[in-house]
Design goal:
There is one protein chain. This protein has a six-stranded antiparallel sheet, with no helix packed on it. A five-stranded antiparallel sheet has the order 2-14-24-19-22, with no helix packed on it. Helices cover about 0% and strands about 55% of the residues. It contains no helices and 24 strands.
Length: about 290
């Protein structure tokens, strides 16, 4: 990025580009950890008297059938998820539990085998169909011994399919299309001028109103962050979104923000706010409620 540049007004027409502004991206897997101590626990107590747990503790149920731990797991899209339950069982024999999803048992009498001691943790993994949005995952003790000690649940779900919008196909103000750094996608990337106020504005089309994730692919070869304000339909939705240094102008990274979009066409504008302007921006990917239309 040059040290000084003149401010320019550069509207870019998609028809002039060799690539399409929109590319449908496949769903990607995402793993989220849900600590047991933050779940809903019935007849179970949060304790920390055994080593090796994650977070601030684990859940120890009473020795009876019926106690349960229930997590709320959010899935960006409906589909099959992998559920990994981390537990310890120092009794010397298996403890059994029913695992249910949204009130339906998906693994009855599931065996949580003995571990070497209460400081040794193991993982029991299963797959289950989840709905888009919140799902209730419950582990209920099915015998008089109660549940094993429960540390966390990790849920690996598919992200909602994303739609990719190239930066060079957007409307640019105080920025220009460049190709002098490696690793970009499409026909180039957008280089802001070294001044506040430059912007990239995309027209984003989504099928369903609601919460959506904006993923900006960018490079910042300086040591200082280059924050941007993100506006949706003319209203600032995120102030000072951080774009930290990536090590070099040829190294690209992702920054995400969650915003609310209307069904149909929306404008998404990223405006550099610092004295050095915004980072180099390669593309915007949009995913969320019902995915995005390409």
């Amino acid at each position: 990025m040059p040290a000084t540049r003149l401010r320019t007004l550069v509207p870019v027409a998609a028809a002039c580009l060799a690539v399409s502004a929109l590319v449908a991206l496949p769903a990607r897997a995402a793993t989220v950890r849900y600590e047991a101590e933050n779940a809903t626990n019935v007849q179970g107590a949060v304790e920390a008297n055994h080593a090796g747990f994650s977070g601030t503790g684990f859940v120890n149920s009473v020795n009876a059938a019926g106690p349960y731990t229930e997590w709320t797991v959010n899935a960006p899209a409906a589909g099959t998820a992998t559920l990994a339950i981390r537990y310890a069982n120092g009794t010397g024999s298996a403890r059994v539990a029913d695992v249910s999803v949204n009130g339906t048992v998906v693994s009855a009498g599931r065996s949580f085998g003995a571990t070497a001691n209460w400081d040794t943790w193991a993982t029991s993994t299963l797959t289950a169909a989840l709905n888009r949005g919140d799902n209730k995952i419950r582990v209920t003790a099915a015998s008089a011994g109660g549940n094993p000690n429960l540390d966390f649940l990790e849920a690996t779900t598919a992200d909602a399919p994303a739609t990719e919008y190239q930066a060079e196909a957007a409307t640019l103000t105080g920025a220009s299309v460049a190709t002098n750094h490696a690793g970009y996608t499409g026909a180039g990337f957008v280089d802001y001028v070294n001044a506040p106020g430059g912007s990239i504005e995309w027209s984003v089309n989504v099928a369903e109103a609601g919460s959506h994730t904006l993923t900006f692919r960018y490079a910042n070869g300086t040591a200082a962050g280059r924050p941007m304000d993100v506006a949706v339909n003319g209203v600032t939705a995120v102030t000072g979104l951080a774009f930290p240094g990536t090590g070099s102008w040829d190294t690209w990274a992702d920054v995400r923000a969650t915003v609310t979009l209307n069904a149909g066409v929306n404008t998404v504008r990223a405006t550099g706010t610092g004295a050095e302007g915004g980072p180099n921006v390669d593309r915007l990917s949009v995913s969320g409620a019902g995915g995005a239309d390409g």
